[in-house]
Amino acid sequence: MSSMRHLLAFALIACATAGVAFSQTRPATKTPDALVADLYQAQKTKRGPFFQRRSRALVDKYFVKSLADLIWKDAHGPKGEVGVIDGDPLYDAQDMEIKNFAIGKSTNEGTKSKVPVTFDNFGEKKTVTFLLAKGTAGWRIEDIDYGGGRTLRSEFKETR
Asked: Which CATH number, 3.10.450.50, 3.30.70.100, 3.50.50.60, 3.90.1150.10, labels domain 29-158?
């Protein structure tokens, strides 16, 4: 009987430990604006998903699969060659002097969301709008709207 209690106690402790470990490794559910803020922070610290060739998971962390595929393929073009993304897609610029940076509150409509980001670059006011979709993995960026009919996706289409 004593060994049965020890076995039961061991099983309970193992299950509890596994539950805690699982809850700590599961990615946190981010709001759309929190995901955008995290993307800007990662890009600022040189750990962003653009231009890197090592981690597809890093690209998938922020973008829906179809856009992640385009970004990943662009980064894996001929080494030393500039791809479709030839500037910083978060600021829609090659050169930057960013001031008055602000991430706006997301507007959600079901599984779709928009997050406006405003800033001044070399004195020019700019708004970039992130279009997100909520899927099984949480919120992911579907496109980035630069205004005037230009989006990140449209940049890829123009090169075909």
From this structure: 3.10.450.50
